[in-house]
Amino acid sequence: MTVPDLTLTMLGATSSGKTTFLLGMYDILSTGLHGYFTFTEDPDQAVDLRDAWDLLIDEGELPPPNETDQSKYYRFVFSHGFNPLVTIDWMDYRGGALDDRTTSAADVAELRDRLNRSDSIYLVLDGGNLAKWLDDPAKLAFVQRKLQVRAMSDQVLRAMRHRQEQKLPFPSVVVIITKADLLRGPDRGVGEALAQVVDKLRDLLPVVWAQGITAVVCPVKVGNFGEESTGIVDVSTIDPVGLHRPMIFSLMHYLTIGLGGRAMEMDQTTASLTEVEQELAALNRGFSGVIHGRKAAQLKGQAATYTNRIVTQQQQSQSDQALIGRLSEELRGHPIIRNGELEPEP
Amino acid sequence: MKIVMLGNSGAGKTTYLALMYAEMNQGVSGFRVQATSSEQHQLLLRDAKGIRTGVYPAATHRRASYDLALSYNGTEVLPFSWRDHRGGAASGRTSDAGDVAELHRDLLDSDAIIMFADGAELVSSPRAAKAFGRLSGHVLRALHARGQVPTPVVIVVTKCDLINLGDQKVLEAVRAPLRELITAIRASQHIHGTAQLVSCGPSPANVITPAVWSLRWGVLGMRARLAVSLQQSIAAAQAAAKRDTLVSRFVAAWRGKQTWRQRAVLHRLQAQRAYEDLEALIPPVQGLDKLLADVTSF
Q1: Gap between the Cα atoms of A309 and B112, Å rounded
Q2: How would DSSP label each residue in A165-187?
Q3: Using an 8 Å Cβ cutoff, are A156 and A123 in contact?
């Protein structure tokens, strides 16, 4: 079985917690969670991620913003036990790059090209800023600016247009709400706050409701750091939650799209088989089959090839469906938005 | 056969190797392990002697490779090499030290991997549990790169004499960090595993099982290869015999080449040798099965 290769791009404003999320996600999945594992293809990248994570859990040192730094690329393998599910080409785009004023033309072109190729796009929203919006809905425009929502939406819409022109499926979108603990307010718990965010997400991030987009909202947290989101945090408050789910959703969506493609392939193969069988039946009428023995044998061979192909496609499809079922278990309770509609809880 | 030990610094890899060697060198149920080099033999025995008096071998500073052989009732059954890497190699960058890349290469073409976890550390430090969990990445990466190659993986929990395994909380502290990996191995078709609790102090306990269990897979692999070789030789002998005609003999004689009859004889001889080698493996396989009858595998 070939392992699919997924291109994934993570966008978010400076200090939105992109890199911290990545470090936490890798730490959790590198030792295994619910049977799922992740490892970097390059062992040295694993050491880099581990060292940065250890700095956080030992010294409370959060990774510095990638403001002046380069965007970072990683190659991950995501597996269920020893069974590789997908290889992931991951790009952690430096936060400042979303701001046209600080971005070179080359950077803009690189990001566009990358998004055009992306199977999944992560839009990272800082929970602390979302809390300000929940506290005072009039601050919507201010919060949108802080989260760089317009820049992210423009990039996603541009990528969608490109993929539509190329007749490619749209990327999945994962709305990652980092620092989810900060959503808590004087009169609301985190759960309640999340429900409010999802309820009003159409105002904040309309692109997620675009026709053809499938998105999930994933609240994540690395710890209860309070407002101290930069610099040094209290290590005793480290408490990672939900960090593996974005990757689960990306894979689930990718496989779901694949199922549609596979169904079409199966229909085509079945049609070809029917055609060959009809030709064979016509040939076998009367003495024709005896006269055209070689042709009949040829058609029989073709029919057998098509039959085998259908069996393989069915097996692959069943295996993918089973995997999608397992993956969806991990996302239970997470709001999924498809074609502008919030999907009802199963 | 190549056996690779994988563990963090201080997990007890070198200590384990010395004690295992000393015990297996004495002979266990007809099986014996002997180093090819007398220098390595002396070194391992000296280390083992020291451990029994409470003097532990110094930390390994670079990769050591031991050429050993397993024999049964005096007959050599399986030559194997045993790789002991510096603990830090499991957590270093390939750009920092040459032995880090060597460890990754060794894991890639290993025939058995023995992972080490310091039991006492697992109980007392959550960081140790995490550090062991991170070793999974090395195993997953290596086994992913080489595809569906059958590989035995042993998880050895060392220093069990320093912890109270009768205490459920302690036992859970030891089990928890291993759980994800064990579940993954259990679900795999091509990875075989066992987890063993060992003590490598002055009174060693259960030190032979991890090695013998790994070697059994080596012997079974050899048996499978011999069986294939036997079938191939038989098929080749039959094919050659079929092509043996009076005309083909004249043609071969004219060209100064082997006749098909001669080739058939050669293949039959090869088949005979493979069969004899295969027969010779039956007693050691039975002996290993008996020795490991009580060992739980997954």
Answers
A1: 37
A2: HTT-PPPEEEEEEESGGGG-BTT
A3: yes
pLDDT tens for B205-233 read 999 999 999 999 999 988 989 999 999 99
Spatial distance between the Cα atoms of B61 and B262, rounded to a whole number of angstroms: 55
CB B155 within 8 A of CB B182: yes
Distance from CA of A31 to the nearest CA of B (A): 5
As a residue count, chain A comes to 346
Nearest CA in chain B to A38: B137
Tokens, residue A50: 């581990």
CB-CB: which of A30, A37, A77 is closest to B184? A37
Are B103 and B88 spatial neighbours (Cβ–Cβ below 8 Å)? no
> In this predicted complex, what is the ipTM?
0.83
Tell me how far apart the alpha carbons of residues B24 and B33 are, in angstroms, rounded to a whole number.
5
Instruction: Pick the closest to residue B225 from B269, B277, B263, B267 (CA basis).
Output: B277
Q: What is the pTM of this model?
A: 0.85
Q: What are phi and psi for residue B33, nearest 5 degrees?
A: -115, 130
Burial readout B55-82 (b: 16 or more C-beta within 10 A, e: otherwise): eebeebeebbebebebbbeeeebbebbb
Helix, strand, or coil here: A152? Answer: helix
Write the pLDDT tens digit of every residue in A67-88. 555 678 899 999 999 999 999 9
Q: Does A87 touch chain B (CB under 8 A)?
A: no
How far is B152 from B195, CA to CA, in rounded Å? 11
- Rounded to whole angstroms, the Cα distance separating B264 from A263 reads 52
**Exposed, middle or buried by CB within 10 Å (0-12, 13-18, 19+), for A344?**
exposed
Shortest Cα distance, chain B CAs vs residue A26, angstroms: 10
